[in-house]
Design brief:
Number of helices: 15
Radius of gyration: 44 Å
Distance between the termini: 112 Å
Structural class: alpha/beta
Strand content: 15-25%
Length: about 400
């Protein structure tokens, strides 16, 4: 250590190297002649956020020569030390101020917390409730729509306690009940004769076969119970698009011993209707099938059926295997016919009926009948909620319970 005046105050400066220390002192005092180095030591200095890290440094001890300390260039030694510290800090942090460093550190912490929050399940139970996940998978497997599935999940979370949600049997039983409650069955209609029944729908859904089945039901009922008065039935076809449609209906007429008529246009239909209405209790009308996007021909069909005095009960035929979004499109485009309810056909061609149940519930439409085969004498049934529930794939259905809750009296 160099000898110094004992009255001189010994100061120090710390930097990465000795040269950095001298550079700061010259910047502070203007010239080497204004200060004197009295000692040197190796040390460390903190850096990084909140000073968590350390690195090697050099510390120079010095004194300020007389007359310099009180010069106008420097108001106080405290101010000098402040300048040194700020200069050191700026170099360690790339020129950022203390405020900027603090803001940067706060933002980093906020981002870190936000990132961690995104990894947490949206609620404390949503991702962990196994029963809801299982139900959603089962509904999806049955081809229920996403909106229907989300509605069931939301209802479970709202109406079930966490303890109840852990009882899968209870959850499954309740979901089956809710599905049953979502199905609306059309009540049988009774009207003064003649009752006119019209079936509309896209190509290939089985409208003609369904007409034959409906007619056969009435014929068979009388044959099984002779005391039941015979129902007078006629059938009319206005299907001009499908080759063999008239012949198929004629075959049904021969088997059932019922008359079949063919109408080419609205005038024909009116003429036939006027001539037979007084002799029939029920008149079934088979129609052409069009793509639901064929608005022009659908409008023409609607015009053909606009016969004074006809007042038909119109049913929309939908194949059970039709995709949910296609069902929505069909229902929307056939809405101008004012169909009273839906006949679900070809249920034997699929084991999944969630698509039908979901969309009919969304559109608030009822089901009148469902068909499951080609045999006209038996493959049609009046809709019953139980019949749909026992066809749920993967669900354990309590048959006794749903019979008591949804069975017909």
């Amino acid at each position: 250590m160099l000898a110094t005046d004992e009255n001189q105050e010994q100061l120090s400066v710390t930097a990465d190297t000795k040269e950095d220390c001298l550079e700061r002192l010259i910047k502070l005092y203007g010239s080497k002649s204004n200060f004197e180095i009295v000692d040197r030591a190796n040390t460390t200095q903190k850096y990084g956020p909140f000073g968590l890290f350390q690195k090697p440094a050099v510390k120079l001890f010095y004194v300020v020569n007389r007359g310099v300390k009180n010069s106008a260039a420097f108001e106080s030694e405290a101010e000098s030390q402040k300048l040194i510290k700020e200069d050191v800090l700026r170099k360690m942090t790339g020129g950022k101020s203390i405020a900027e460093i603090q803001i940067s550190e706060i933002n980093a912490k906020v981002n870190e917390i936000a990132s961690a929050m995104q990894k947490i399940p949206r609620s404390s139970g949503e991702e962990k409730i196994e029963s809801i996940g299982r139900i959603e998978d089962m509904l999806d497997d049955n081809e229920f729509t996403r909106d229907f599935i989300l509605g069931i999940s939301a209802r479970l979370k709202k109406e079930f306690s966490l303890d109840d949600l852990n009882d899968f049997h209870k959850v499954e039983r309740q979901v089956v009940d809710w599905i049953g409650e979502s199905i609306e069955v059309a009540r049988p209609k009774h009207s003064r004769p003649p009752r006119v029944v019209v079936i509309v729908g896209p190509t290939g859904v089985g409208k003609t076969t369904t007409i034959g089945k409906l007619a056969a039901q009435n014929v068979i009922l009388h044959k099984k119970s002779p005391d039941v008065p015979a129902i007078r039935i006629s059938m009319i076809t206005i299907d001009k698009t499908r080759i063999g449609a008239e012949k198929q209906l004629q075959t049904f007429g021969e088997v059932l011993d019922l008359p079949v008529h063919k109408a080419e246009n609205a005038d024909d239909l009116k003429s036939i209707f006027d001539s037979i209405k007084g002799d029939n209790d029920v008149i079934y009308i088979d129609t052409s099938g069009y793509s639901p996007n064929d608005s022009e021909n659908i409008a023409k069909l609607k015009s053909t059926l606009s016969v004074d005095g006809l007042h038909p009960d119109v049913y929309l035929a939908l194949a059970a295997s039709t995709k949910a979004r296609d069902i929505k499109n069909i229902m929307q485009n056939y809405e101008p016919f004012g169909y009273s309810s839906v006949i679900v056909t070809k249920c034997d061609e699929t084991t999944r009926l969630g698509n039908i149940i979901s969309v009919l519930n969304e559109k608030r439409k009822a089901i009148s009948y469902w068909t499951d085969g080609q045999v006209i004498s038996r493959n049609i049934q009046r809709a019953n909620i139980v019949d749909f529930l026992i066809r749920l794939s993967g669900f354990t259905v309590d048959r006794i319970h749903i019979e008591e809750k949804f069975g017909e009296d």
